[in-house]
Write a structure and sequence with these properties.
Strand content: 35-45%
Low-confidence stretches: 1-14, 198-202
Strand order of the largest sheet: 3-2-6-9-10-5-4
Oligomer: single chain
């Protein structure tokens, strides 16, 4: 007889051969169920910016991921009929602005369908500098990537954009990044400073 293993808290883990009653395939639409499950992914929030001057465009995404380290590449899924995808492909180069926790207003702005284009949207005060190839950057981010589109791959009703990371910079803010979870934006509390009263024992 196989003895069930226990976790570090002493709870008995289920036998690997026994179906977990809490993990079952619910009835209903596969699309709706997949959407509900993937909303439980916790992801970072970025704004992709491209274009120049009054043609500057930004779009909020939470689908950016690292695709390769050697060479460094990222991928992002965008709807095939979206303005964001059209702007990225027309420009060929874009910046990834990794948003800090307090920048949720920017995330909401660049997710709006009526966000418009140009440096006046949402206001010139939010822009700070630009990449080596002239793409404007959002100030206050926790980090930036300068990317060049290399190819796109059809993926259902989306296009998967693959891009080479040409350069990267870290922000000076100590804020935790903004996080998307369960269809809403969340701010992490700032990390507590080290407690100097704690001393290691000899």
């Amino acid at each position: 007889m196989t003895v069930p293993s226990t976790t570090s808290r002493g709870a008995v883990s289920p036998d690997p051969g026994t179906p977990d009653p809490g993990a079952h395939w619910p009835a209903g639409s596969r699309t709706a169920t997949a959407r509900a499950a993937t909303r439980r992914f916790a992801t970072g929030v970025t704004v992709l910016t491209c274009g120049r001057d009054e043609g500057t465009h930004g779009v909020t995404v939470s689908t950016l991921t690292l695709a390769s380290m050697k060479p460094p590449m990222v991928s992002v899924a965008l709807r095939r009929d979206s303005r964001g995808l059209a702007a990225l492909l027309a420009s060929g180069a874009f910046a990834v602005n990794v948003l800090a926790g307090r920048q949720d207003p920017l995330a909401r702005h660049f997710a709006r369908s009526d966000r418009g284009e140009g440096l006046g949207r949402p206001g010139r005060g939010v822009w700070a500098g630009h990449t080596a190839d002239g793409v404007p950057l959002l100030g206050g981010a926790v980090g930036w990537l300068r990317c060049r589109v290399t190819r796109t791959v059809p993926a259902g009703d989306h296009e998967l954009v693959l891009a080479l990371v040409a350069d990267a910079r870290l922000g000076t803010t100590t804020e935790p990044p903004l996080v998307n979870f369960a269809g809403d934006l969340h701010r992490f509390p700032p990390a507590a400073p080290p407690d100097d009263t704690i001393r290691s024992r000899p």
